Amino acid sequence: MSPPKLTKDQVQKLAFSAIGFVFLLYVYFTFFLGPLNRSRAAMLVTIRDLQSKLDESKDEMKKAVSLEKQAITATSRFAALKALSPEGAPIAWFPPRLKTFFAQQQIDKAVAHLENSTAFKEAELSGWTKYNWLIDLPQADFASVGTAIAELENTEPLLSITRLHIQTLASQPQFQHVELAAASIIEKR
């Protein structure tokens, strides 16, 4: 059996249908799918940009939270340091404080003298002054002095020992004469 023969009219209808189908595909891809793909590509670029901005914002938020914690810590530490400086001139309260401290360390005869004081040049430290003290311990044993110096630097965060001179006493070899130079930072009041 042979395939049925198409008439000229049927061949024309089939050709027009094929041309119509190709035209329909062209219109679909050009006017519907093309703009849709371009819009999709543009949206993907926008999404990537917004995602990177969102990631940067999250990083900034983490930094802000960390900075806030540091600020709280620094503020409380600063308040604690300010509390270490009582009212009045340091020459009035600092030497008795050191005498009491060394007495608690079983070192009796402690004398502190102000050597000099200097203001800080930095603007952020303009409310603070550096005081240099000479501390004389005429009769102390070596172990007590070592413990006392370590305790002094650990309990007074704004004080540092800058010089230490130890001499033995000829009349009492179990004791030493100790001279300390210390620098302390005290808030101006």
How would you sum up this structure, described in words?
The mean pLDDT is 88. The longest helix is centred in the first third of the chain and has 76 residues, at 8-83. The chain has three helices and four strands; from the N terminus they run ααββαββ. It is rod-shaped, with a radius of gyration of 43 Å. The chain folds into two domains: 8-83; 90-187, STM4215-like, CATH 3.30.2000.30. Strand 1 and strand 2 (128-140) form a beta hairpin. By secondary structure, the protein is of the alpha+beta class. It has helices at 8-83, 90-104, 142-155; strands spanning 111-119, 128-140, 159-168, 176-187. The protein has a four-stranded antiparallel beta sheet. It starts with 7 loop residues before the first helix and ends with a strand. 56% of the residues lie in helices and 23% in strands.
SS field, number of helical segments:
3
How many structural domains are formed by the residues? Answer: 2
Q: What's the gyration radius in Å?
A: 43 Å
What is the chain-wise order of helices and strands? HHEEHEE
Helix content: 55-70%
Q: Which structural class do the helices and strands define?
A: alpha+beta
Strand content: 15-25%
Look at the structure and give the mean pLDDT.
Answer: 88
Q: How would a crystallographer describe the biggest sheet?
A: 4 strands, antiparallel
Distance between the termini: 119 Å
CATH topology of the largest domain: STM4215-like
Poorly predicted ranges: none
Strand line-up across the major sheet: 1-2-4-3
